[in-house]
Each structure stands twice: as structure tokens, then as C-alpha cells.
What does this fold into?
Amino acid sequence: VQLQASGGGLVQAGGSLRLSCAASGGTFSRYGMGWFRQAPGKEREFVAAISRSGGSTYYADSVKGRFTIARDNAKNTVYLQMNSLKPDDTAVYYCAVDTYYSGSYSSTYEYDYWGQGTLVTVSS
It folds into this structure.
């Protein structure tokens, strides 16, 4: 499975961005999908995850109410709508494929394919 993330950029605090992640090479609708982020000098952390059908979504407490994950299985794409952005949201954002689907959606070990990352910078 190959993943191509896009949509990152520079935005002022309070602004919005929408990230996209296009998948190829697999059966997209069979996979859970997740978004993670990694700020400079910090470990990669869970942001959001979505079930195969899109019927269930999960969020880190730090983004709950501001970010929304969604997927379009017809387009093999997962999205992350980010609103009310804060400087602390600055990071490289990665999409990832969960083929294990064991329920440990917030763990990096649950995911076996990763995109290349897209940089989000939020200025104060």
C-alpha cells in the first residue's frame, strides 16, 4: 500500500487546513486509517483514526472538537479537517494504514504502512 499525503502549509493561529491522504495498491475499504503527527524533538503521537466504513471515529483529547477525520472509500482517500489551529499543532502529519484492525488505533504499532508526511506550521 502506498500513501500520498498533501494539504499541509503555513497558517495563522485560528485558521483551518484540510489534509488529504490518497491510498493505492490495496483494498482501501478493508483498512482502518489513522493520522499521527510529530513535532520537532518529540515522539510521534496519535491524532485521529477512522474505521473501515467511516462509521466510527476516534480523536486525541488535544484535537477533539477541532479536528475531523473522514474518508471516501470510492476515492481511496482519508481526510483530516483541522479548524481552530494552534501553534502547538505545528508538526509533520502522517497518515497510516491499519491492516491489523485490532482496536489499538492510537498506537503506532497498529499501523504498518505510512505516508511521507506533510508539514503543518501554525504561526501565532
Summary: The chain has a mean pLDDT of 96. The two ends are 37 Å apart (CA to CA). DSSP finds no helices and eleven strands in the chain. The longest strand covers residues 17-24.
